[in-house]
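Readers outside the structure-tokenisation community will struggle with the description of the input data as it stands. What matters is that the chain and its backbone geometry are given together, residue for residue. For illustration, here is how one protein appears when written out as sequence plus structure tokens:

…
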Amino acid sequence: MPLDGSLGTTNAARATVTIEYSATDRSYTVTTDGRSQTFRPADIDAARSSAAATVYIRTNGGTADVLTLTKPGTSGRLTYQYVAGGFWERTVSGATSTSGSVDGFAYGVETPDAALPRSGTANYGIDLIGVMGYPNSAPSPLAGRGTLYVDFAKGSIVITGEADGGTTFNGTATIASASNNFSGRFEYYSLGSMTGQIDGRFFGPGAQEVGAAWHVKNNGGNAAAGIILGRKNPDTPVNSDFVNIANSQFFENSGVILKATYANGSNNSSNKLTQASDFLVHYDAGYKSYTIVAGDKAEFFGPDRVPDNAAPGSHWTKGIGTTRSTLQFLNGGTHVTGARYVFTDGDATSSFVTSNFFIYGFPTANADIVRSGTSFFKSSIAGSMTDQGYDSLLDIAGPGVIQVNFATGAIDIRGAFDIVYRPITGPRAVGNGSYTGTAQLASSANSFTGSIELAASDTYRGDLSGRFYGPAGKELGAIFKASDSGGDVAAGTITASLDPSANASTKALADLTETTVFISSKAQAGITVDQPSGRQFSLGPPSVSRTGLQPRITYDPQTGSYIVREFGGDHQDQLLETLRFGTADRDTAASDAKFDVFNVASGNTTHRISLLRPGAGNPAIQLTYASFIGLVSKTVEGAPINRDTTRYSYFALGTPTAETLMPRSGTGTYNGLATGYGTVRGIGFAEYDISGTSKLSVNFTSLATQLDLTLAGRNLADGTNFNFGDFIFNGALGYSLVDGQRLNQISMGLKRDTLPPGSSGDAFGHLYGPAGQEHVTPFGMQVRGADGSETVIGGVAYGKRD
């Protein structure tokens, strides 16, 4: 360092140091980089020595050499049985400047190459000693403590720790495949990140201790170097899930890498590829930090790297120079987690993105994999894709359902996803898509492989692989990679948890064995008859349940009973009515192959219920996953009200198809029937039993829907027939969160351009079945006639896809 106050220079680099001990005169000779010095007992400085280290000092003119060697011991800081550490400091004082060097080294009784463990894991409590050099001030000592974790089977090492003063250090290294030495990257976090290298080996006959030398520097002219020494800690308990992850642990699994280059200022992407890669994840319980080893990169993410507005423990990010690294947990459950480690860099013309997706957790033992029966899992997909229309990766995320036949090993995967673009101005949705896949579970191992297809603006096809996690394989995780015909690529993770309700919309009504609550939709019309005049009044425009809490129908297949619950109030969330009926209420004489009929009385109200019979035996229409209830409720009110009210209600019955199982492209036509009740008020008043045909058209790409009805009626008073004509409802297919599930819904309004003013109508229903093969859509309308008449119809349309 110049003595005139100008800035000096610092540097840190790897060096080869040898230390030789002479038993004859008990001297130590240290040699490195063309320099050598011998230190004898007479050079010991007792004042500077301590219980942990011996200090030797030699001076020759303006040159001072200081050697510090740790003392042997079996416990405590710095004192070890098989490994020792040393520092040789040389200071040269001149007329205009002072220069110096510090060489740190670890030495001792090395573990023989053949004795180094090649299986299992271990952790070592370590001491860090070093020196920090500055361009504008004298060097300062460094000291700290931490842990070195090693997976001997993989040859991987992870280092985490904290230096005095609160700064942190970390590193990763790889053990040589046939010898006792390791090397890797090292980071010391002080005044920003300082990065460099670490080299070391294990000591003792059974690798009881460890020692290594490290060096780091940054672009600000600071540099540091030192050593770590450590001894093996007792084995720690292994975590069993992510709920109580109290111990540090290695997690190993495979992953996939997506790479792309983006030209600055344009949407052009190039050098796009996906490839499989081994990943290593280490969690440090003491520091609540993660170290990720992905291919040729390894990075440490500590809790101090959480960005603003991020949930703690879910997202870490850091930037060094032109690079930026992010670790994000995407999806998962109690025993498996999907994550993404993204590394970006750039120059004046391009940005380079490497997105690493991986799954880690607590795999199910091979012997614990179930080998019989079929199970359903609710799943989640998370990943990224390239698209030539965008200047960065697009994120994909969405729910799904996975069916596993453990007897045959067949796995069926399907779901939906949203596509999100994340420019600097903020994220925005730019589309959606669906995915399907099949895989085969290995016959004697916990692993499966298969194929996947993602359908969005383009179709990406590729492969996937994964395994089951947790007790008895109650969760699963997989990684996938795919590409389209134009060279764009996609990659990501899929995680899933066992959930019997995941297949609710795939079960035939006749196959239900457990009590099931159906989310329904309803249309209602009716009349009021004043007594004793007999004057008849419509109840007004028919109501269609399309807002608030939809009706719920509980079905118990063991007893054959039903409970219908209806809601109302200002917010449509108050329970207003409950109707119960079952096998004991069945009217055998009135029932037939089309409908089961039930009669129930409650106070001054009688209910007549008609339930469309599902299955192949229905001569009118064969629905498998859906049905409906037609309810006629007559309430007689005596004096002083003197009024009879009859309500005709139509309830959809079934579990609507989940968004994850819905088609995302193409069109569907559902031909079927319509049933209902209507009134016509003109010169007189008439009631009609409505029947007819229906056709629902769905565009799964644009989500547009149309319901065509052709309706006729039979006069309930004289039996004459009346042709009501054709009606059209237009609307859209959508999805909403109901009882924790994203279910499809069809919402439409009456097309009124060919009808007289004042006409109105609504239809609200759902698609049913594993891929939306059936529909039940209650509808209601009020149509004004050119002659001043008024027609009111409430009913239900139902059919199945052609």
